[in-house]
Amino acid sequence: MKDVTQFIYDETFKLCLRFTDKVYRSLPGEVGYPFIYLGEQFDQPTETRDLLLSVGTTQIAIHLYGLAGKRKQTTDLMRDLKMSLRFLHSDQYSVSGVTANILQENPNNTEPLIHGILTVNFSYYQDERKKK
Prior knowledge:
Layout lengths: L3 H14 L5 E2 L10 E12 L6 E15 L3 H15 L7 E13 L7 E15 L5
Parallel strand pairs: 1-2
Antiparallel strand pairs: 2-3, 3-5, 4-5
């Protein structure tokens, strides 16, 4: 059985692919903009009396990078993804909130970039007795 937090990560990755084929699990090299990097995941399990239940929350950071001169392209992608994330759920998890931040970056004194960060909060439940 796949861990519920990995399941959430995989489903989030698939959702990002609906908006662009430039979705990566690590920062890519030269791929062109905009692109999505599915980044950090933080897990906060909750102790239960039943040792075969996994309950808790997890957050995933979705990083969107685009050219500052084409900011609208990146913010539109962020908006579309943010709206779709609200409907991402299964019998094992649901989205409990999405926050957005936009930073301007100038790495290595190159063309300025827009770096959007969506932090997605999930609540999850997994019964280890149920095998899929």
